[in-house]
Amino acid sequence: MPHLTTPPAAAATEAGRLGLGTPGYAHPLLAPVEWAELTRPGTPLHWAVLNVTDGPGGRPDAHCAEAAGRLRDVGDPGRTGPRLLGHLAMRDGARSFGELIGDAHRFRDWYGVGGFYLADTPADRADLPAVRRVVDALRGLGDGLRIVLGHGTHPYEGYAETADQLVTFSGAWADYRWSLVAEWTADYPPELFCHLVHGVPRTHLEEALRIARWQGAGTIWFTDRRGTADRDPWASMPGYWDEIVSRIGPGVSE
Questions:
Q1: In angstroms, rounded to a whole number, what is the distance separating the alpha carbons of residues 67 and 49?
Q2: How far apart are alpha carbons 169 and 159 in whole angstroms?
Q3: Cβ(208)–Cβ(176) below 8 Å
Q4: Its domain of life (predicted)?
Q5: Cα–Cα distance for residue pair 165/162, rounded to 1 Å
Q6: What's the CA gap between 58 and 128, in Å, rounded?
Q7: What is the residue range of 116's domain?
Q8: Domain of 30: which CATH number?
């Protein structure tokens, strides 16, 4: 896949300012402060993912419903405010169409999500028709639903016309700081791309933000938490939460 080291033609602009995409905090009982912080006025949140048990769970969860309701009340989630996205586990295409759409219905019925995050979305050209079928069915569940494809790498370019946003990097800081951007991304606005990076030291936060802007990402999630075999780096709040909010929040010039 062609890559380049120069920045794409479009950089983050006032209309598409850098914002945050939370890939999935722990259950609200385990992370009450984290969920509460997402609703703090001035937090530049684009979306947050609700993941009960690798999906919506087997029955409605009152604690998740409460957290979902608070987030829906922030701003205007139907248009310009943050979206709560339901976590749909694609497992690189291993889940069936019926399983995914069933999970989506439960997320809509139980938690009123404003869209979906398709975790571990396949990235190859051959998988595009199957992914497009799922996305088309999800859009039929309501008006204005936001669809984010969690590839974690640069996919085949055809996916850019399929969803509202693509996660084109998900991984460790050690890899991100030397990463390259696919050449085709220069033809699309920053709002299409999201980067999720764990293990970013506080001392390198500004460098990480420069890389995101340089590579044309509109949504980010940077954390100093590290991923291990038994630890989810996205489950808790970054240690420098206040700092990153202040760096990219309203009124910050880019």
A1: 11
A2: 15
A3: yes
A4: Bacteria
A5: 9
A6: 29
A7: 22-248
A8: 3.20.20.80
Beta bridge partners of 20: 45, 220
Q: Tell me the three state secondary structure of residue 199.
A: coil
Query: Tokens representing 194?
Result: 């999201």
- Domain-embedded: residue 203: yes
Read off the amino acid at residue 218: G
Does a structural domain hold residue 199? yes
Residue 14 within any structural domain of the chain: no
The structure's pTM equals 0.91
190 and 15 in contact (C-beta within 8 Å)? no
Phi and psi angles of residue 4, each rounded to the nearest 5 degrees, phi first: -140, 160
| Tens-level pLDDT at each residue, the chain (254 residues) | 444 444 443 443 334 589 999 999 999 999 999 999 999 988 999 999 999 999 999 999 999 999 999 998 875 444 456 799 999 999 999 999 999 999 999 999 999 999 999 999 999 999 999 999 999 999 999 999 999 999 999 999 999 999 999 999 999 999 999 999 999 999 999 999 999 999 999 999 999 999 999 999 999 999 999 987 788 999 999 999 999 999 998 755 44
**Identity at 92, one-letter amino acid code:** D
- Cα separation of 44 and 159, whole Å? 26
